[in-house]
Amino acid sequence: MNDQVRYWKPYVSPLDPCPPIRVKSFSTPPQLFIPFQPPNLPQFTPFEALKYGTLWPALYSPYGGPKQFRQEEGET
Amino acid sequence: MWVYEKKLQYPVRVSKCDPMMAKFLLEQYGGADGELAAALRYLNQRYSIPDKVIGLLTDIGTEEFAHLEMIATMVYKLTKDATPDQLRAAGLGDHYVAHDNALFYQNASGVPWTAAYIQAKGDPIADLYEDIAAEEKARATYQWLIDITDDVDLQDGLKYLREREIVHSLRFREAVEILKEKRDEKKYY
Predict the structure, then answer these.
(1) Which terminus of chain A is more exposed, N or C, with fewer CB under 10 A?
(2) Pfam families per the record (chain A) (predicted)?
(3) What three-state secondary structure class fits A8?
């Protein structure tokens, strides 16, 4: 279960023309939950930090696209 | 569907004959952060936003149309009795030759309204943050409009509209908090 994704169930009408997508998802990346970054957060190694684009795991937001969202929805 | 009440949300009084103020008020009529842009932005974003906040966008988008009517009333009162010469002196000569005394969706500089002013990104967080920013920009615009007139009755209406921007901003911020919650998680108190 990824903390950075939220799921919701849109209304599905019996009269919808297309097969319904019953669960939709959207990103809730970490900056939404950090009003002001506290000092001394744990850090990635320099190599990881270069790869991920941030020095801090708390700020890292992996994004796997809609496919990732759908897989997680299956798991939950 | 809407039900229309044939009255303004808050009474509009204009006491000073100042057609140039009509030109400035157009910023809130057909400007980038104006009431038309706000109403259309929210009422359009509703369709793809999680259902918990659809009603909020409907309510606020509807109220923005009520504000649009108030601005229109202010502009109309300030221009309906102006002669072409007076409109020209107020910087509205170009408006007169294109529109006579009609209102038009353009900003204070005469730039016509465009859908490029608004956005629907489909990402609920991005859309709500845009809405919060739009409310703050509209609040600031009202402040500068209040500053640029000394008509206390007009200022009264503008102060009411400024306060509504503040309330709307908070409601959008609350909507973000609602979307951050884990919806299907059970809560124990």
Answers:
(1) N
(2) CotJA
(3) strand
Q: Are B154 and B64 in contact (CB under 8 A)?
A: no
Strand, helix or coil for residue B1: coil
Integer distance in angstroms from the first to the last C-alpha of chain B?
A: 40
List B35, B63, B95, B130, catalytic entry:
B35
Pairing of strands A5-8, A24-27: antiparallel
Q: Is the pTM of this model over 0.80?
A: yes
* Interchain contact, A32 vs B125, CB within 8 Å: yes
User: Among B2, B30, B189, which Cα is nearest to B115's?
Assistant: B30
Kindly give, in sequence order, each residue whose CB lies less than 8 Å from that of residue B182, ignoring residues fewer than 6 positions away. A6
ipTM, two decimals, is 0.79
The whole-angstrom separation of Cα A57 and Cα B50 is 28
Contacts of B76 by beta carbon, 8 Å cutoff, 6+ apart = B103
In the residue annotation, B99 being an active-site residue is answered as no
CB contact under 8 A, B183 and A28: no
Answer whether A12's CB lies under 8 Å from A20's CB: yes
Express each pLDDT in B55-111 by its tens digit: 999 999 999 999 999 999 999 999 999 999 999 999 999 999 999 999 999 999 999
